[in-house]
């Protein structure tokens, strides 16, 4: 399973999208579900650091979470948190 966001995101404010994202991540943590982070999006501003407010928020929620792991995608060897925090 992965977080696919909302349908028709153009119909939501930035704040609503961030709240939806936060609720999804927090529900996975509350349910003790494993979370695999595939990293920031190459080509976006600030790569290889957090490339969006949503991704930064996810990292903050998941910091120290036992069910969190990373899986760096092929070609993304410069991702600084490869292997976890």
What does this molecule look like?
The chain has one domain (9-70). It has two helices and two strands; from the N terminus they run αβαβ. The protein is globular and about 35 Å long. 32% of the residues lie in helices and 7% in strands. It is mainly α. The protein has a two-stranded parallel sheet. The mean pLDDT is 84. It has helices at residues 14-30, 53-62; strands spanning 35-37, 68-70. Helix 2 links the parallel strand 1 (35-37) and strand 2. The two termini are 22 Å apart.
Identify the notable features of this structure and list them briefly.
two-stranded parallel ribbon, 32% helix, globular, mainly alpha, 85 residues, 2 helices
Write the layout of secondary structure elements.
Elements: H1 14-30, E1 35-37, H2 53-62, E2 68-70
Parallel strand pairs: 1-2
Tell me the number of strands.
2
Strand count, sense and barrel status of the largest sheet are: 2 strands, parallel
Mean of residue pLDDT?
84
What overall form do the CA principal axes indicate?
globular
Distance between the termini: 22 Å
Strand order within the widest beta sheet:
1-2
What is the strand content? 5-15%
Rg measurement, Å: 13 Å
Low-pLDDT sequence parts: none
Secondary-structure class: mainly alpha
Number of domains: 1
What's the helical proportion of residues? 25-40%
Please give the count of helices: 2
């Amino acid at each position: 399973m992965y977080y696919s966001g909302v349908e028709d995101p153009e119909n939501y404010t930035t704040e609503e999208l961030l709240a939806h994202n936060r609720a999804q991540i927090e529900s996975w943590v509350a349910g003790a579900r494993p979370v695999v982070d595939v990293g920031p999006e190459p080509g976006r501003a600030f790569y290889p650091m957090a490339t969006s407010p949503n991704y930064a928020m996810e990292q903050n929620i998941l910091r120290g979470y036992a069910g969190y792991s990373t899986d760096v995608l092929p070609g993304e060897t410069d991702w600084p948190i490869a292997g976890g925090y």
